[in-house]
Amino acid sequence: MPTEDHRTPEDSRGTQQKPGTEGFIKEVGRGVGQNLLRETGTTIKWAVCGAVVGAVVLGGLGFWKFGAVGLGVGAIIGAVVGGATGGWVYLSA
To answer: Which burial class, exposed, middle or buried, applies to 25 when counting CB atoms under 10 A from its CB (0-12, 13-18, 19+)?
Structure first.
């Protein structure tokens, strides 16, 4: 006659998960994710604004000093530097 394993809830109580733990972890994770998304979006907005300002300023200076080639080079360099500076300014504030 085969022996059957009759487990009762009391036998495996140590391996059972507490009922509210999973919901709490999901709720905290969702809150952290939403805040991270909002923070990332704001940082990107600051970086884009900095890139536009940098491109206009350095592009204008490049055009004034070196013509059309200076405009292109200045705008590219200004966009990179301005974007990095805009993101940094927001994150350091």
So the answer is: exposed
Tens digits of pLDDT across the chain (93 residues): 566 666 665 555 555 555 566 788 888 888 999 999 999 999 999 999 999 999 999 999 999 999 999 999 999 999 999 999 999 999 998
> Who's near 90: CB < 8 A, 6+ residues apart?
42, 43, 46, 47
- For 57, residues 6+ apart whose C-beta sits below 8 A from its C-beta are 78, 82
pTM tops 0.90: no
